[in-house]
Amino acid sequence: MASAPRYRVRAYAKINLGLNIAQRRPDGFHELRTILQTISLADDLVIEVRRGRGISLTVTGDAPADSSNLAWRAAALAAESWAIRGHVALHLTKRIPAGAGLGGGSSDAAAVLRALALTARRPPAPAAVLALGAQLGSDVPALVLGGTVLGLGRGEEVYTLADLAPWHCVLAMPRGGAGKAISTPEAYARWDLHHPGLTPLAASATIMRFCSLVQQVLPAFRAPLTVTRNREFPSGGSKVHAGIENDFQPEVFSLSPDFPRIHRQLQRASAAWVSLTGSGAAQFGLFAEAGRAAQAAARLAVRDRSWHARFVPRSQFLRGVSVVS
Ligand code: C5P
């Protein structure tokens, strides 16, 4: 076979700007409504289809280098579905922490699908890439699209939204102890325990509410940085805030006082919006100014793990695939 190019893909992390959980479905998943945003904290994936068969994975950083890794499973599924012949060699440089709600594993899988779609002799339709992503995990399709995405269904039904302002994003999670990875299935099981008997009708009411609140809240996230002041932002306690907050937040906050402490610290640093992402353990604060964000990240780093990232709009996300020699 002719040698295929080697691709490098930036596998960007995501945050959930809002997350409403509705009822548990017969298939065990939960209906949810969420807005995902890709951010500049990223893993790096180098992928090449060589002569031979099978899949190999090497990892720099903290992730399994075997078939339990979602990147490996994505490569296996794509190779089979798109009749990719050859040996798929993956090298992953891991930076996104696991169990943080930042979509690290899902983003790696999405990066594999994006690159392998380019190597397929018959390139799959975009909808087919999303469908394969949904088989791998609920967050994978949103991370195939990138930018700002509305996620419905179990999260896998995705709609691209217009770009938001280029917010700075400070991420933080406790070190060790309370900050150990939070398992998504356990987080949903805990939520079920505390919210028994949510009927589909009640759930659909929350869905309508979420969608209408999103209409009200998103313009504030899009406001030009020069006119966005904390007091004008909806998280300042005004009417439009309630409704899109992350439903996992109260659950996670009850696990350890470190979580509400980090939340308060981000608020005190004048973040315009503070929230848990996914089912945790990371929280984020949004800042209009780089300096304030850097200062907040540095203060948090004294006690916690913290990162300073920026929103990655879809145009930048799409440029994150390059051919390497
Ligand atoms: O889709 P993903 O593999 O990320 O889901 C992991 C687990 O999280 C599922 O097996 C399920 O227990 C839970 N989950 C859920 N509802 C969702 C997404 C995930 O209950 N919408």
Description:
- The protein has helices at residues 70-81, 104-119, 126-136, 140-145, 184-194, 200-222, 249-253, 258-268, 290-301, 314-318; strands at residues 6-24, 30-50, 55-60, 87-93, 148-152, 157-161, 168-174, 273-276, 283-287, 304-310, 321-324.
- The protein is of the alpha+beta class and 325 residues long.
- The chain has two domains: 6-163, Ribosomal Protein S5, domain 2 (2-Layer Sandwich), CATH 3.30.230.10; 168-310, GHMP kinase, C-terminal domain (Alpha-Beta Plaits, 2-Layer Sandwich).
- Strands 1, 2, 3, 4, 5, 6 and 11 form a seven-stranded mixed sheet that branches. It has a four-stranded antiparallel sheet with strand order 8-9-7-10, covered by helices on one side.
- A hairpin with a 4-residue loop joins strand 5 (148-152) and strand 6.
- The protein binds cytidine-5'-monophosphate (C5P).
- Cytidine-5'-monophosphate is lined by residues 28-30, 32, 137-139, 154-155, 184-185, 188.
Helical proportion, percent range: 25-40%
Mean pLDDT value: 89
Named once each, the bound ligands are: cytidine-5'-monophosphate
Which structural class do the helices and strands define?
A: alpha+beta
Radius of gyration: 20 Å
Number of helices: 10
* Name of the level-1 CATH class of the largest domain: Alpha Beta
Please outline what is shown here.
By secondary structure, the protein is α+β, with helices and mostly antiparallel strands. 34% of the residues lie in helices and 28% in strands.
Give me some keywords for this one:
10 helices; binds cytidine-5'-monophosphate; Ribosomal Protein S5, domain 2; alpha+beta; four-stranded antiparallel beta sheet; seven-stranded mixed beta sheet; globular
